Structure formats: C-alpha cells, structure tokens
Amino acid sequence: MEHLKDKFADECGVVGIYKKDKKNAAKFIYYCLFALQHRGQESVGIATNDNGCIVNEKGMGLLSEVFSSSSVEELKGNIGIGHVRYTTAGESILKNAQPLDVLYKGKQIALANNGNIVNVRNIRGILEDSGVVFNTTTDTEVILNLFARNIKYGEIFAIKELCQLIRGSYAFVITLENKLIGVRDVYGLRPLCIGENSKSYVVASESCALDAIGAQFVRDVEPGEIIIIDENGLKSYKLDSAVKRKMCIFEYVYFARPDSTLDGINVYSARYNSGRILAKEVPVKADVVIGVPDSGLPAAIGYSKESGVPYGVGLIKNKYIGRTFIQPSQRMREEGVAIKLNPLKEVIAGKRVIIIDDSIVRGTTSQKLVATLRHAGAKEVHLLVASPPVISGCYFGIDTPLKKHLIAANMSLEEITAAIGADSVAYISLEGLIEAMGTKEDVFCTACFDEMYPMEIPYNTLGE
Ligand code: SF4
User: Fold this and answer.
1) pTM attached to this predicted model
2) Domains identified in the chain and CATH numbers
3) Quick one: which H or E segment has residue 219?
C-alpha cells in the first residue's frame, strides 16, 4: 500500500491486563486502548480469557465506533489483550484486525503485535510449502503459528524458538490458559512497558495507557525480554540473542503521546529539548515562533525559551476530523478552504514567523502551511524542523512513502526551500536530536535519517 499522507503513519498499539482481583479485564483494556488510539485508527480488538476460554471481539474503525458499554460488559475473564491497528503489513480488512486467536490442540491462544517482521515472506513461504494454511496476510499470524507449534514444550521455549526465526521489530502480548505474556524484540525497536496497582498488572505500548487506569509505571520491558504473568506474579526471562538496543527515535519525534515516557525518556521533554537545540543550531531573527499542532508545539516552546523569540499560538487545529470526513479538493483548497489548521491572523499578520514542525516527509503539507501563513499576512516564514531530513523508508512497522516521494531524498535544501515557498528551511542535526533525548548513548534506530538500519533488510522486503 503506497502511503499518500505527508507524515510517517503510526503503527499499532497493544495492551495486556491481568486482573489480580479476578474481576473482568475488558473495561480496563478498553480505557487503555482509548489512551493508545493515536497509534492506530483503522481497527480495534479486545480478546478476553476466562480460565482458558477466549472470546475475541474486533471491528473496523475507532474504539468508540466498535465497542459499546454492553459489548464490553459481555467480554468475561480476568485476563485480556487489546490492539489498535494502523495497517503497515497486510490489507486493512476486518480479517487482519487483531488480536488474532487460534485453537491449537485444545488450547485457545490470542496474540496482538506491534511491529513488522522483515523476513516474514521467507518464513511464510516455508510454512506454506509444508502445508500450513493462513487466514490473514499479517505478520502476526505467522508469529502465532510459530508460537503454537512449540507450545507443547512450554511458552518460554516456544517464544525463544520463534524469536530465533523472526527478524524485525515486535512488541507482542499473548494470552492462553491462565497467563498473560509480553515480549519485546531484541533491539527494543517498538516500546512496551509494565504497570501495576493493587488489582492489576498491565503491559502496554506506552505509559499513557497505564495512567488511564490508575496503574503505576513499574518499568519498561527490556529489549529481548519475555514477561510472564500468572497467579504467581510476574516473571522475567531473556531471549538468548543479545544485540545493541535500538529504540525507534521517531517515537519521540512524532508517534508517541507527549505524556508518555518510553525507555526512561519523556516524550514532551525530548520534543521541548529538540526545540532548544534547534534554537542554538539555527538562530533566526523573527517576531514570533509557532508550532504545527500537536507534535510541533513542544519544540516551538523550547525554541522560544532558548532564543527569546516570543511563542505564539499561530495555528488552530480542528480536532473533529474523522476517517469519513470528505476532504476538500485541491481546487477548493486553492480557494481558501482551510479545514484542519486555521491560522490565527492576530498572531501572524505583519510578523516574521518561525514555524516549527516535527518532520517533513513529502513536503506537501509544509507547502500548504507556508502558503496559509503568507495568506494570513506573515511578512516572512521560516520553517524549522525538529528532526533531521527524512531520506529513507522504515521497515520496522512504520508506514512510509517510497524513497522517490521523500522530499529530502530527492532535493537539496535550496530546492526544498523553493518548493515549499518559505524564506528559509532548516533542520536540527542528527547529533542535536540525539542530544535532545538526554543521553549520549547510541541506543536509537535513526535509519530513516541516516540509512543505518540495525539489521539487514532482505532484498524481497525492500519496496523499491
Ligand atoms: S527507520 Fe525511522 S521510523 Fe523506522 S524504526 Fe528506525 S527510526 Fe523509527
């Protein structure tokens, strides 16, 4: 599926809950998924486990469109997993919605994953050649199949075996029998954390999901760690292969919620710091600095603090645009139909404006934004970007345009500035972005900025 949006698109969000008080888990999973909705809006599902009996409800659309209070009430069991999906592998159809569940030798198993397996075509081909049939086109079904075939030797063995075969990014939750399991890939490319309160254990993609149900953050699941939760509490195991931690730096740039803390780094602080560093790297004489809502706002505040250029709210976002909203045509936009972001003329008119965005992908949105600001009377428009030029696609669960559509992969800075129509365009350096994370360690995947992929990508996975 070629990606037409002018942003990297979110991936998926997962959650798993084990209720120690033996009450139903479904309502709590619902609230966690609500907090994770930004990670996927195409489909949603909740699978609950009542003493090994699993019921799995899924639908296309937002959580509030798929589940009602009565449908959540009907889901019984003190253990459950949930998923919000943005399609990065497989089609966007109900069959591919997660969690997936199977019945294997009398055992019901449900699994939900966030990530992308780069060698899935090879593994799937081998399995199909040996007679395995698949119901979906997802990576997740391949993971579930590999897990089930070794379950007779125990969950730890089954997970270790499957993780030796799959390569890529994954953060998955499984429920079977009386257990909840969480696994994070050896690089820790996708986030996963653990929360707890007196009544529940929670495993979730982001810490904002723990806050949603009043659970305390305990810690992040370590790269290559397996967590098993049952009536004996939480136990931790390690996958055999040890590699260098490579958390996706784009989680901090754009994907994650600002109130989440991932691997010890608060997302808001990382964005704010990137603005401060941008101000040091790219000082611009201006009357006001504004941010592109929502992810550009903390960087704009940071830039203002460091540079002394006053911060202003220059763009107002309409939050009520749903999936079914009829987008205006190009012609209507040229005639001034501004739907999603409307400029605040009182802040913009007659001013030299710095506008900060989290990233530039194709450049089409930036071009429109600059034109909008000029139309609102800006004297000068300087576009500053709180991440380095995006020059390459992602193979780890993030939907990215082909390289030929990435503006920075195909144009010089002068050409980008001219194409976007700004007075100037500048990016934070990669070193600056890493410094904004507050650590000097090389613990991030930065491949979309420098093409240094943490693992080899099989030829048949490369999209171009
Ligand atoms: S390539 Fe970019 S988006 Fe993909 S995991 Fe690495 S940093 Fe994240």
Assistant:
1) 0.93
2) 12-243 (3.60.20.10), 267-318+328-440 (3.40.50.2020)
3) strand 216-220
3-state helix, strand and coil shares in percent for the chain, rounded to the nearest 5: 30, 25, 40
- Closest alpha carbon to 268 in 194, 206, 196, 193: 206
Q: Which residue's C-alpha comes closest to atom 2 of ligand 1?
A: 448
Residues ≥6 apart with Cβ < 8 Å to 368 = 333
What was the pLDDT predicted at 341? 86
From the alpha carbon of 393, which atom of ligand 1 is closest?
1
Rounded distance from Cα 454 to ligand 1 centre (Å): 10
pLDDT tens digits along 17-30: 999 999 999 999 99
Give DSSP secondary structure letters for 90-138: S-SSGGG-S-EEEEETTEEEEEEEEEEETTHHHHHHHHHHTT---SSS-
- Of 145, 236, 109, 256, which Cα lies nearest the Cα of 183? 236
Does 53 qualify as catalytic in the annotation?
no
- Please determine, for residue 3, whether its predicted confidence score (pLDDT) is greater than 50: no
**What is the rounded average pLDDT of the residues 307-333?**
79
